[in-house]
Specification:
The complex is a heterodimer. By secondary structure, chain A is an all-alpha fold. Chain A contains six helices and no strands. Helix content of chain A is 70%, strand content 0%. In chain A, α1 packs antiparallel against α2 and α2 runs antiparallel to α3. The chains are: A mainly alpha, B mainly alpha.
């Protein structure tokens, strides 16, 4: 439990909490960006440089921007008059608290049998990652490429404006 | 408390925050934000297990996290496209108002 870890964890959790609690949707998107940045820094703290920079590129660079675009296109920045929480929010809160209780209990109970490797950080170069992606993981890589193409076309078709009377 | 336990607890808390957001918010985009937070919590678990696991040089956890990031990006694009499409159709993103499946 280093000082750096505590600061980064507090930053990430504060960003996450703000993202689900704030009233204005645009503020929520900005808080989500803070949470993503905190997670990227946590990855860097875990010596996973490639994953950390991929997180920054994909989440802060693409997903957060997409969320902001969606908010602006749907006029979601106006705070609704009848509250931002759904009708049966206490049920959702109870379910989330229960899930956290179960997860935390499981982690603390299994703390003894979890791996304790605290040796030197593994040195992972981009060359190794590239070799793994082109060697052992080449099939998943191709499938992800196909999935991204399908998602791109699907998202465009779903959000495409239908002309009046064109059926 | 070992470092791994700390990371797992942070990830569990982030997952619970995301779940609470997805279950309690009214706006469909905020529900998607909650789902993104849950996916990120799972990625943090993968990276933490990779770092403190017995064979970090095998890169398994890291690769899993990278593929998971790619799939989450595709999910976000399709989800937000659906929200925009629903907004064009029903002129609302309020999930409580979307109570019928007929168009």
């Amino acid at each position: 439990m280093t000082f750096v870890f505590c600061v980064l964890a507090a930053l990430t959790l504060a960003g996450g909490l703000a993202a689900v609690l704030l009233k204005n949707t645009v503020h929520c998107a900005l808080a989500l960006t803070v949470a993503f940045a905190g997670l990227a820094l946590l990855y860097l703290d875990l010596d996973a440089q490639f994953a950390g920079f991929a997180q920054i590129l994909v989440y802060i660079g693409a997903v957060a921007i997409l969320v902001v675009f969606a908010i602006l296109l749907t006029k979601g920045s106006e705070t609704p008059k009848d509250g931002v929480y759904s009708r049966n929010w206490p049920v959702g809160l109870v379910i989330a608290a229960g899930v956290f209780a179960v997860l935390g209990w499981a982690v603390l109970q299994s703390a003894r049998v979890l791996p304790h490797e605290t040796g030197p950080a593994p040195t992972v170069t981009v060359l190794q990652i590239g070799n793994a992606l082109m060697g052992r993981y080449v099939l998943p890589l191709e499938i992800v490429a196909l999935l991204l193409t399908a998602a791109l076309i699907g998202a465009v078709i779903v959000a495409m404006h239908e002309k009046e009377g064109a059926k | 408390m070992t470092p791994l336990t700390g990371y797992l607890l942070v990830a569990a808390l982030l997952f619970a925050i995301g779940l609470a957001g997805a279950l309690t918010r009214r706006n469909a985009i905020l529900v998607l934000i909650g789902i993104e937070l849950m996916l990120n919590a799972a990625n943090l678990n993968l990276i933490a297990f990779w770092r403190y696991g017995p064979h970090p040089e095998a890169l398994t956890g890291m690769m899993f996290a990278i593929f998971s990031i790619a799939v989450a990006a595709a999910e976000a694009a399709v989800g937000l496209g659906l929200v925009i499409s629903i907004h064009r159709h029903a002129h609302t993103t309020d999930l409580d108002a979307m109570n019928r499946m007929k168009g």
